[in-house]
Amino acid sequence: MSIFEEISSFLQSGRAPKVKELVQQAIDEGLEPKQILEEGLLSAMSIVGDKFKRNEVFVPEVLVAARAMKAGVEVLRPHLVASGVENKGTVVIGTVKGDLHDIGKNLVKMMFEGKGLEVIDLGVDVAPETFVAKAKEHNAQIICCSALLTTTMPEMKNVVELAEKEGIRDSVKIMVGGAPVTKEFCESVGADYYTPDAASAAETALNICLAK
Ligand code: B1M
Description:
By secondary structure, this protein is an alpha/beta fold.
């Protein structure tokens, strides 16, 4: 069994300490952090998601797998995030109101930090009022909204509308993402950019900040 398969197997069974240990071992063996993330952690989480969909596992199992994923990501963090890079812009990020999923949002945050962006992380279940108030307070160039539920995606429209009402729409770009979000949805709610993954989100955010 390869180390990626071992990480995947322990992640799926929610064994956080083992996942941490193996991720560290993979780093020590000189494996690429991006490959550890994608082939060890993300692919395992996607297997858990598929099993969840088929009712083969339930919320408690998903939760312990998610905790194991977080533990692995924490070990990877310093290797994914370049240190000491100058601040190239400020981004406010959060998971929209009613939505508690934060693994993807945290990955996006990490990639942003790796690009030298300052990230104001508002956490999960973030109301439109908070997104807009924090963007104003920190003079952010970008508001980033993540959503994993089809039922919470419409909150993104509320963020766009409130930014307009509060007079900051011209000075802030709004980025949206998360598994159910699409380019078409982004356009339909009047947001500026949709990106499918953390790496492309970071590229886009950096370009926005450099263009300002
Ligand atoms: Co939930 N859940 N969950 N869940 N969960 C999904 C999303 C679901 C698809 C599972 C399924 O049915 N197959 C389904 C949603 C169905 C739908 O809406 N159509 C679902 C459901 C139904 C629910 C509950 C309602 C279950 C229940 O209680 N009956 C409940 C809702 C709670 C709430 O939010 N109010 C719930 C709860 C949970 C847990 C708490 C158990 C846990 C979350 C733990 C946590 O996040 N701390 C959980 C998990 C882990 C999942 C799955 C299995 C995995 C999500 C994940 O972390 N993926 C998920 C199934 C799946 O997606 N396969 C599922 C890994 C992560 C790295 O990917 O977040 O997509 P993702 O992020 C990617 C990209 O999307 C992108 O970059 C990331 C990496 O490249 N991205 C952005 C994300 N945000 C971005 C923002 C950007 C740009 C890119 O710019 C701003």
